[in-house]
């Protein structure tokens, strides 16, 4: 499953950052190869061709250096450049979300995301702060870009999305389930998802707009509308509408498809 390339892809942005700083390149390679605990500043300094004191002068500690490596790793996505095209297309939810989907896929495939994720999971058992840092300085700024995009489309009446934080996580999850987690788990070739990435993105966009555009147009079945309203107010009403939804049955929870979206 491979993504199409773009003129200013995450790969090119990451490469420009790394070419400017051999020390960060060496640190990234050492952390990925040996993990946080197994990496020494001496080994990083040797690969980078600098004195160990240089690392202390610039970063102060191994922890600070690791934090900078993670921050730079996410820079191409978190900076907003990758979601720039999505914002330009925000008049059309389908076009904007498709562009956002491709930005996510290209980032995953070009930034050693699988290797980083495996390393963070492995190291966080002994050093819990690593997972927290990976999220705080890496994924969170990138996630915020998508949240702001959805919130903006909601304000301008292109989506009905009162909780863009939840919506953004849902959208990313629909794509990551195919493009990263099977690779992180090192599934065998026959167990890997066979769907082309174009289909994964298209179906994620279709599912997302069926929820957040259908509500805007009033196309959702009454039971779904009641459930959405209840989840934004109080628990007793939510329990009641959950029972209503069970009665409706999955077959009735359908929305029309608008080819103009």
Please describe what this structure looks like.
With 261 residues, the chain is an all-alpha fold. The protein folds into two domains: 10-217, Tetracycline Repressor, domain 2 (Orthogonal Bundle), CATH 1.10.357; 222-261, no CATH class. Helix content is 70%, strand content 0%. The chain has 16 helices and no strands. It has helices spanning 10-19, 22-34, 41-48, 52-59, 62-73, 75-78, 84-88, 93-110, 113-124, 128-155, 164-179, 181-184, 197-212, 214-217, 222-231, 235-248. Helix 8 packs across helix 11 and helix 8 crosses helix 13. The relative contact order is 0.10.
Q: In CATH, what is the class of the largest domain?
A: Mainly Alpha
What is the radius of gyration computed over CA atoms, rounded to a whole number of angstroms?
Answer: 21 Å
- What is the number of E strands? 0
The CATH topology of the largest domain is given as Tetracycline Repressor, domain 2
Q: In the residues, how many domains can be counted?
A: 2
**Mean pLDDT rating:** 76
What is the CATH superfamily classification of the largest domain? Answer: Tetracycline Repressor, domain 2
Shape type: elongated
- Measured distance between first and last alpha carbons: 26 Å
Low-pLDDT ranges: 2-18, 249-261
Amount of helix: 55-70%
Structural category is: mainly alpha
- Residue fraction in strands: under 5%
CATH architecture descriptor of the largest domain? Orthogonal Bundle
**Tally the helices: what do you get?**
16
Question: Largest sheet, if any?
Answer: none
Please provide the ordered H/E string of secondary-structure elements.
HHHHHHHHHHHHHHHH
């Amino acid at each position: 499953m491979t993504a199409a390339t773009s003129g200013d892809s995450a790969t090119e942005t990451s490469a420009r950052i790394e070419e400017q700083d051999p020390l960060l390149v060496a640190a990234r390679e050492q952390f990925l190869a040996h993990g946080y605990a197994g990496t020494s500043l001496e080994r990083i300094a040797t690969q980078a061709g600098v004195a160990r004191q240089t690392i202390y002068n610039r970063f102060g500690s191994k922890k600070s250096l690791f934090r900078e490596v993670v921050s730079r790793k996410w820079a191409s996505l978190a900076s907003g450049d990758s979601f720039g095209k999505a914002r330009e297309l925000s008049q059309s939810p389908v076009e904007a979300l498709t562009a956002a989907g491709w930005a996510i896929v290209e980032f995953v495939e070009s930034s050693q995301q699988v290797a980083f994720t495996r390393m963070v999971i492995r190291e966080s058992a002994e050093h819990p702060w690593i997972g927290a840092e990976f999220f705080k300085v890496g994924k969170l700024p990138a996630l915020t870009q998508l949240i702001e995009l959805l919130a903006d489309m909601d304000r301008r009446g292109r989506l009905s999305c009162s909780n863009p934080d939840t919506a953004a996580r849902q959208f990313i999850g629909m794509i990551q389930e195919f493009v990263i987690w099977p690779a992180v788990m090192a599934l065998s070739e026959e167990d890997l998802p066979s769907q082309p990435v174009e289909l994964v993105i298209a179906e994620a966009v279709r599912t997302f707009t069926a929820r957040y555009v259908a509500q805007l147009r009033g196309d959702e079945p009454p039971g779904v509308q009641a459930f959405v309203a209840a989840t934004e107010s109080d628990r007793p009403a939510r329990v009641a509408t959950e029972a209503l939804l069970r009665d409706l049955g999955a077959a009735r929870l359908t929305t029309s498809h608008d080819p103009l979206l």
